[in-house]
Amino acid sequence: MLEMTKFTGTKTVKACPMSLGEAEKVLGRKIETSAVENREESEGYLVEYEDGYRSWSPKDVFDKHYHVSETHLNRMNIELQEVEKRYLDGRKFSFSQEFRKLSETKRKLLTS
To answer: Other C-beta atoms within 10 Å of 24: how many?
Structure first.
């Protein structure tokens, strides 16, 4: 079996709310997905990537990965949420068994 490596990336896309059925009409092609029972009532987004490619994404998947970034306040709120998450993850780690297993020097470097 292939050993896969985890990657994290950031994309900027344009999107508008649209059912899968509507998106298929706009795109002029059928989108294969097993996540949708009713193509006309499915909630999702027509998505356009920076290279012009267009596709459709289910609402729950899209909402998990993308946030409105039209204004500088939107972008600052995204950054704030990311920093808060990193802080909470670091704080949680500092009370973990993994943290206690680190050398005293490494613990001091991480907490200073």
So the answer is: 17
pLDDT in tens, 52-109: 999 999 999 999 999 999 999 999 999 999 999 999 999 999 999 999 999 999 999 9
Q: pTM for this structure?
A: 0.69
Supply 43's token pair. 């909630």
Tokens of 10: 């950031």
Residue type, 32: E
* Structure tokens given for 104: 């005293």
Cα Rg of the chain (Å, integer): 20
Cβ(75)–Cβ(93) under 8 Å?
no
The answer to whether 83 and 76 are in contact (CB under 8 A) is: no
- What is the edge-to-edge ordering of all strands in the sheet holding 14-17? 14-17, 44-48, 54-58
